[in-house]
Amino acid sequence: VRSRQMLVVLDNCEHLLTPCANLVDALIHAGPAIRVLATSREPLRMQGEQVYPLPVLALPDPKADLGALVRADAVRLFVERARLQRPDFTVGEREASAVAKICTRLDGIPLALELAAARVGTLAVDAIATRLDDRFGLLTRASRTALPRHQALRALIDWSHDLLEPVEKALFA
């Protein structure tokens, strides 16, 4: 790799922080034209590391007009993913309130929005919004090829909880 120009992408480094940090260190010292993009819930804590925190997606203002609503990042992601299920999906006046409720109830969390949008093929958005009271039951049956923690919201939260230190788990409880 010494003479190559490359971008190496490492995803979910929080599972193996030290091995990922060691790999990144070896790569960046192997060649001057190697760049690494690593995603993680925790920084690798390396010299020269640049951390870019990614906040949850911007939520729609419930009192906003339709034009402003559909420009909110959370709504845009929901619509984009809903169109994978129903290519003709749009947010009109009739769906606006339900879509805003879905995005707000799911706190702008991208994975949760994607799981909810996957239901657009079988449920109307107002039914999805209503059923969010049982969000763990509703947001299941994602892609069969996805990692288990990405197949259901409950699995994601369980996985995240398992990453906590014992003191953090006690505080969370």
Structure description:
It is a single chain. The protein is mainly alpha-helical. The chain is built from nine helices and two strands. It has helices spanning 17-30, 66-71, 73-85, 93-105, 110-117, 125-131, 135-138, 153-162, 166-172, and strands spanning 6-10, 34-38. It has a two-stranded parallel sheet with strand order 1-2. It is elongated, with a radius of gyration of 20 Å.
Set down the secondary structure blueprint.
Layout: E1 6-10, H1 17-30, E2 34-38, H2 66-71, H3 73-85, H4 93-105, H5 110-117, H6 125-131, H7 135-138, H8 153-162, H9 166-172
Parallel strand pairs: 1-2
Helix pairs in contact: 3-5, 4-6
Describe what is shown at a glance.
With 173 residues, the protein is mainly alpha-helical. 47% of the residues lie in helices and 6% in strands. The mean pLDDT is 85.
Q: What structural category arises from helix and sheet content?
A: mainly alpha
The order of strands across the largest sheet is 1-2
User: Number of DSSP helices?
Assistant: 9
Shape: elongated
Strand count, sense and barrel status of the largest sheet are: 2 strands, parallel
Radius of gyration: 20 Å
Unreliable stretches covering 5 or more consecutive residues: none
Helix content: 40-55%
What is the average per-residue confidence, as pLDDT, rounded to a whole number?
Answer: 85
- Residues in β-strands, percent: 5-15%
Number of strands: 2
State the separation between the terminal residues, measured CA to CA. Answer: 47 Å
Order of SSEs: EHEHHHHHHHH
